[in-house]
Design a protein that fits this description.
- By secondary structure, the protein is mainly α.
- Helix content is about 60%, strand content about 5%.
- The chain has helices at about 5-10, 15-25, 30-40, 50-65, 85-95, 110-115, 125-150, 160-190, 200-210, and strands spanning about 30, 65-70, 80-85.
- The longest helix is centred in the last third of the chain and has 34 residues, at about 160-190.
Amino acid sequence: MTSSQKAKKQELPPTAWAVLGLLSFPGERTGYELKKWADSSLRFFYWSPAISQIYAELRRLEELGYAASVRSGPEEARAKRRYSITGAGREALAGWAADTAEAGPPVLKHGLLLRVWLGHLAQPERLRAMVAGHMERTRAELAAVREAREQAGGVPEWAFPALALRWSERQHLAELELAQALLDDLADLGADRKEPTGTAVTEAVAGAGSAGRQADGDAPTPG
């Protein structure tokens, strides 16, 4: 490996390692097949890169000698390029996977909670509807996780992906519990105060700038 290749290796983003990881399982796969597998596995606990990102990473991995590709012959109606991991790629991936450096904290960007945080600008019934919709989507995702886990079950090469999917199943179940608890909290909050409706919401927000301030300052946190 040249010094230029070593520098590029050190700069590889997690997405590149994820794509190389998809190639580390037996068989050759097209970019489209890699995308399908990412959608049925990676997205449940990390994220699923766009097809354009997958192809961009595949080109990078080929340049580094971590992946190789072959183009299909005339026997296929539509030409396809299939990718596989190389020996150098497997060695580099194993080193990255075994790296004891801190992997970093989980990143949570919960769009629903951002809206709940701004609940003083919304009607309570609308907030409850958003939480209910979130629970419905989470149940659908949970079903998809369980389907993917069932497909991975019994395949020795997919034993560790199956463990990750089992974790994702537990995470979705926990998300449903948290959402139900949030609904209960919203109900308790509504019972503790008169819920403004219609134009009353606007009036309540307008008065929050002065009447809602804490005696010790503007921020609802210490410091």
